[in-house]
Design brief:
By secondary structure, the protein is α+β, with helices and mostly antiparallel strands. Helices cover 34% and strands 26% of the residues. It binds coenzyme A. It catalyses: malonyl-[ACP] + acetyl-CoA + H(+) = 3-oxobutanoyl-[ACP] + CO2 + CoA.
């Protein structure tokens, strides 16, 4: 058994179509939905998002991101022993998207399953993969966050449809004698399920209930700022880790004002917070690995850096993972 798991490679994949605030505003105006590019950018920091066309799938994006992560790590699909895919927007009810990715990659040796913790899905999946590696059940894992949230949007609801985008990010994790993942802390509170949800289901061949994403934006905002700040401090305290030793925060990318508030609460300079929400919008479980990959490609995050990954979202769920890259 190895004392740690370490991230050896990252990857990302986005749909081919980028949609700017201006383009989205025009599309919504045709439907009689009033918004403006300026409102979206000043209230959220979002300038554009990528949206899947009907022929693009969750599995396709996830597989591309996974292959990139494997290539960055010098590994191949045949090496992979575990695939955990975090998503709330699978291509089908079952089999899992993780199994579809396994087939697409030809990763014959892997155990594959999905995790559903909405926008916290990636940190949940990373925590489970880290535990399975440290317990000696597997030697490595592909951990993927991949979403097609555009398929849950009510394009007549301006309070939600301007916020979300599609995409996938992945990391390849391997057993290691050196850190690695230093610690993980997850939380859930099912009593807050009503502030962010999609309650519809398939029954008797029909959709029963509401198939669209619904959100109490202000309640989610307040909750996100509170739990992200507390979750970071709780994890640091349990590891005896000092805030001044943190190089970068990679939080779930929902709204730049949430990210700034968390940075302020932690007394972290804003240049140590990775912000990609402007480019991607909120991509739910894909947002953290997309942001991590972006910061690595841009050479902001480098080997040896201490990085805090944070998720927060529907459930309510939230969590933090501290990693030495
Ligand atoms: C959704 C969110 C951007 C709204 O921003 P806000 O500053 O709280 O705005 P409010 O909800 O107070 O709305 C202010 C006004 O803007 C309006 N508005 C909402 N969406 C709008 C849009 N797309 N365009 C123009 N006006 C809009 C509201 O109707 C309201 O108008 P009113 O004052 O006449 O009633 C913000 O609450 C947020 O980011 N919440 C968290 C969302 C999130 O992170 N979700 C995912 C978590 S995983």
């Amino acid at each position: 058994m190895s004392p740690y798991s370490a991230i050896l490679g990252t990857g990302a994949s986005l749909p081919r179509r980028a949609v700017s605030n201006q383009e989205l505003t025009l599309f919504l105006a045709e439907k009689g939905v009033e918004t403006s590019a300026e409102w979206i950018e000043t209230r959220t920091g979002i300038r554009q998002r990528y949206l899947c066309d009907p022929d693009e799938t969750n599995c396709e994006m996830a597989s591309k991101a996974a292959l990139q992560a494997l290539q960055a790590a010098g590994a191949t699909p045949l090496d992979v022993e575990l695939i955990i895919l975090a998503t709330s927007t699978p291509d089908q009810v079952f089999p899992s998207t993780a199994c579809a990715v396994q087939a697409e990659l030809g990763a014959h040796k892997a155990i594959a399953f999905d995790i559903q913790a909405v926008c916290s899905g990636f940190v949940y999946a990373l925590t489970v993969a880290d535990s399975m590696i440290r317990a000696g059940q597997v030697n490595n894992a592909l951990v993927i966050g991949s979403e097609v949230f555009s398929r849950l949007m009510d394009w007549n609801d301006r309070t939600t449809c301007v916020l979300f985008g599609d995409g996938a990010g992945a990391v390849y994790l391997k057993a290691s004698s050196e850190p690695g993942i230093l610690g993980c802390k997850l939380h859930s509170d099912g009593n807050m399920g009503s502030i962010l949800n999609t309650t519809g289901r398939i029954e008797g061949g029909r959709i029963v209930g509401d198939p669209f994403l619904r959100m109490d934006g202000q309640a989610v905002f307040r909750q996100a700022v509170s739990v992200l700040g507390n979750s970071a401090l709780e994890l640091f305290e349990s590891l005896n880790f000092k805030l001044e030793d943190l190089d970068f925060l990679v939080p779930h990318q929902a709204n730049v004002r949430i990210l700034n508030s968390v940075a302020k609460k932690l007394k972290l300079p804003e240049d140590r917070v990775i912000v990609t929400v402007g480019m991607h919008g909120n991509t739910s479980a894909a947002s953290v690995p997309l942001a991590l990959n972006h910061a690595i490609v841009q050479k902001q995050i480098k080997k040896g850096h201490n990085v805090l990954l944070q998720g927060v979202g529907g459930g309510f769920t939230w969590g933090s993972v501290l990693v030495r890259m």
